[in-house]
Design a protein that fits this description.
- There is one protein chain.
- The protein is of the alpha+beta class.
- The protein has a domain at 387-456.
- The protein is built from 19 helices and eleven strands.
- The chain has helices at 4-16, 31-40, 49-63, 89-108, 110-119, 123-141, 143-155, 186-192, 220-227, 233-254, 256-273, 279-292, 308-323, 325-334, 337-344, 347-352, 373-381, 409-412, 418-432; strands spanning 24-29, 71-74, 79-84, 174-176, 207-209, 358-359, 367-368, 392-397, 403-407, 436-441, 447-452.
- A hairpin with a 4-residue loop joins strand 2 (71-74) and strand 3.
- Helix 2 (31-40) crosses helix 3 (49-63), helix 4 (89-108) crosses helix 5 and helix 9 (220-227) runs antiparallel to helix 10.
Amino acid sequence: MIDRTQIEQIEALAKSLGLKYHPVEFEVVPESFMTEIAIYGLPVRMPHWSFGVRYIYQLIQHRMGLSRLFEVVFPGNPGRAYLAQSNSAAENVLVTAHVLGHADFSANNLLFRRSQEQVGEHIVEQAAAHARQIGMAIEEHGLERVEAVLDAALSLEQHIDVDQPLRRPRYPDAVPEKTTPATNDDFARRFAALGPDTARPPTTGAAKRSPIPPHPEKDLLWFIAQYAPEMEPWERDIFLAVREESFYFYPVFACQIMNEGWASYWHARLLREADFLPQAAYVDAIKCHSDVVRPTASGDAVALSTNPYHLGFSIWEKIIEQHGLEYARRIMCEDDDFAFIRNHLTQDLAAELQLFRYKGPAHGTLTVQDADISALHDALLAPKYGFGAPTVSASRIHVDGKLELVHDHVTDGRGLDPDRARKVLEYITRVWRRPVSIVTVNGDNQPLEITVMPELEVV
């Protein structure tokens, strides 16, 4: 149930308070469709069995009362907001205000803006085009072949390099030799005249073949799409489609605490100032707000889990209280979660929110650790590094075409699970069609190399 008049009134109030965003299209949809959107990440997306696994997990969470979807919003111009059909009128008042906070964030945050400049502002239509493209590939090449490519691409969907442009060219085929600069230095002339054992060989400036990759390459989706020895054009298109969608999703992942907190701050403020709302609707909406931003999902788990809505909302409230809205908007435009948490989650606020680190067995006594604020920052942000994926780079293509990957276990602070790593290598080998290996460490921090041969023959 959605009241279009109230949406217009809330939008007018939001703009009067300084929110700046692209138009937002609101649509009410059944809960089953909401779940599909949340799992696929978009209203229409390429088909793959892994989304079905995620759907079952989300369905179980929902039926156990551990999660509920009120809305799903997609940045763009226009933005798209899908509201659950089961929402009450009061809930939709809050959800509308929340969506406008998200729309303001995505239209002004630099990370979101950079993503939209590269990917475009019509990701819903682009994702639908990708789905049609894959549907045609299935008709032409068969489900089994297409699914093998999607297995590989989606297993690497987090392995992009957001510091590189989305439309990046291949490496140069050759690099010029460095030329010896002319010098009038007396010592350099005397050194060069000492003889063949010490003199530098003459340089001609002739180009030489560039190694591939010329440096460790983190953007594995791009690298495999460009340099897999026998990859067919339709397979490369699938890899690049997955990569494009990953560029779209990255800001959502990297700004989750900021973004949800900003939207929560604005839905609370807009509700307070919406004097056109009936009293009963206001009370119901405020109750919904308190449910959204409460610290944890369960009273028995106080301080053992972090609700990004609550954490982000609390930090924004403190910033605005101490420094004002203009200062907060500058942070909103310029930061991501890393800067937001490190710069604005203070020792005092962490104590006020009862945030702490803990350790213990899965079933047994939990021990509260020290209240070191830097360690708390690291604990909150650790899952976000590298788009939440291990730091893996393509380091070398051997003469026989073997692809060598290297895991930066020092940066990650841990090794890889050997069984999961082997499964991902099996997926990659199907499209690389040459041996693929990865160098990492085992649980005892000892060097470990895993190699997979084509046709899943393990060495």
